[in-house]
Amino acid sequence: MADFDLFVIGAGSGGVRAARVASSYGARVAIAEEHKVGGTCVIRGCVPKKLLVYGAHFAEDLDDAAMFGWDVPEKRFDWAVLRDNVLSEVGRLEGAYTETLTNHDVTIFKERATLIGSNSVRLASGKTITAEKILIATGARPLMPELPGIEHAISSNETFHLEKLPKRIIIAGGGYIANEFAGIFHQFGSHVTLVNRTDVLLRGYDQQVVDRLIQISIRKGIEFKFHATIEAIEKRNDGSLHVRMTGCDDIHTDQILFAVGRQPNTEGLGCDAAGVDVGEKGEIKVDADNRTNVPSIFAVGDVTNRVQLTPVAIREGQAFADTFFGKKPHQVDYDCIPSAVFSHPPLAGVGMTEGQARNRLGTVKTFTSDFRPMKNVLAGRNERSLYKLVLDGETDRVVGVHMIGPDAPEIMQAAAIAVKARLKKSDFDATVALHPTMSEELVLMR
C-alpha cells in the first residue's frame, strides 16, 4: 500500500486547490513546497503586485483630489513603508494557505521533492515517499537571458524586496508584467524606459486598446525603445549601470528589470527518471484530464505552459481532484477566459480581438465608445477610456469585449459572463444603463 493516495509537488494555487479538494473526498494527501506555501501568485506575483498597483494609484489620486476640494499640502511617498506592509500581507496569506491545508488534513513537507519513479518521490532530506498518484504543480519562474552582466539585473521576483526605488529603470519586455511594472515605477517617481525587441506590446490583446495604452503611457512620460535589445550590462563605480544596446543608443540607468517571459519549473524535477515527457520549453505535456504520458503522474498550472493564469491553475486543480477523487469527471473549458493588465490605466479583454474575429469569422462588426470618465473631466485630466464590442457579422453575437480605463478589470468580469453566454448585441441594447457609471457605455453603443 502506498504512503499516500496523492502526492502534490508544489503548493501554489493549482496544487493547493487539488490537495484540499482531494482530501475533502477522503484521499490521503501530502504536498511538498521548497519555498513558501501559496506559490507565485500569493508570494511573488499577482497579489503583492496588485498591492503595489493600489499604492501607485494614489500618486494621481492625490493630484486629482485638489479639484474635488481636498487640501493635500504635501505628497510624499515612502517606499519602505509600502514594501514592508506588502511583505507582511504576503506572510499573512502564506499562513492562511498553510492553515487551509492543515485543516483539511493534508500533510505538508516544507522541502523540495523530486520524482524517482512513476509512484515515488524523494524529499531533499533523503526520505522516499510512495503515492498512487503524483501531481506536478511547480509553476514557472521569470526567464533571465544569458548576457554579460546579467547578475546586475533583477526579475519581477526581486521588485518586492528592493532597498530603495531607482531614479531610473529599464524594463525589458512587452508583455503584461513589463507594462504593469512600467506603470508602477513611473507612478512612484522613477524614470521608466521600456525596451522591446519588436514593436508589438501585449500580444493577444486588441490592438486598438493597446495603442491607447501606449499613447497614454508616452504622455505620462514613459519612454519606449522598440526594435531594441540589451547586449550587455556594465556596473559603474557609483553603482549605476551602463547598458550596451542594439537598435538604439546605449542607456545609463540605475536598475534593469527583465520581464521577457516565464519558464516552467521542471529542471532537476526528475522527469527523466519517471519517464515523463517534457516539451521544448520545459513544459510538462498533459492531456485534457491533466494526465502525462505516465498514467499515475499528472500536472496542472503554469508548469504545463497552457494558459499561465492563476484562476486557470485553480480550475485545473479542481477538475483533477473532482475527476480522480470525487467521481465527478469534468475538464476545464479554455474558451473565453477573461484577462487583464493592471497598467495605468488598466486594460482587460475577453473573447476574440477584432483581428482574431476577422481571421476566424470573416464578417465582423465593431462598436466603440471613446469617452472621458467623469472623474477625469472634473480633475482636468485629459486621459480617455475606450470600450469596444466585437460582433459576429452574421449573427450579431458578441464574440469579444475589450476596454481600457479606470476599473476595467472589475467591469470585465461581468462582461465576460455575457460573452461566455453567447449573448447578442440586442441583449446589450435591451439592458437598461446604470447611470452615471463608466460601465453603462457597454449598453449604450449604437
Q: Quick gist of this model?
A:
By secondary structure, this protein is α/β, with parallel strands linked by helices.
Please explain how this structure is put together.
- This protein is α/β, with parallel strands linked by helices and 446 residues long.
- It has 3 domains: 4-142 and 263-325, 3-Layer(bba) Sandwich (FAD/NAD(P)-binding domain), CATH 3.50.50.60; 150-260, 3-Layer(bba) Sandwich (FAD/NAD(P)-binding domain), CATH 3.50.50; 345-443, FAD/NAD-linked reductase, C-terminal dimerisation domain (Enolase-like, domain 1).
- Helices cover 33% and strands 24% of the residues.
- The chain has helices spanning 13-24, 39-44, 46-65, 79-103, 156-159, 176-187, 207-220, 271-274, 310-325, 354-361, 374-379, 408-420, 425-429; strands spanning 4-9, 29-32, 107-109, 113-117, 120-123, 128-136, 140-142, 168-172, 191-196, 223-226, 229-235, 241-246, 251-253, 255-258, 262-264, 297-299, 339-341, 347-351, 364-371, 385-392, 398-404.
- The strands form 5 sheets. Strands 1, 2, 3, 4, 5, 6 and 16 form a 7-stranded mixed beta sheet that branches.
Quote the CATH topology of the largest domain: FAD/NAD(P)-binding domain
Mean pLDDT score: 97
Count of helix runs: 13
Gap between N and C termini, in Å? 66 Å
- What count of domains describes the coordinates? 3
The CATH architecture classification of the largest domain is 3-Layer(bba) Sandwich
Q: Report the count of strand segments.
A: 21
β content, as a range? Answer: 15-25%
| Largest sheet composition | 7 strands, mixed
Radius of gyration: 24 Å
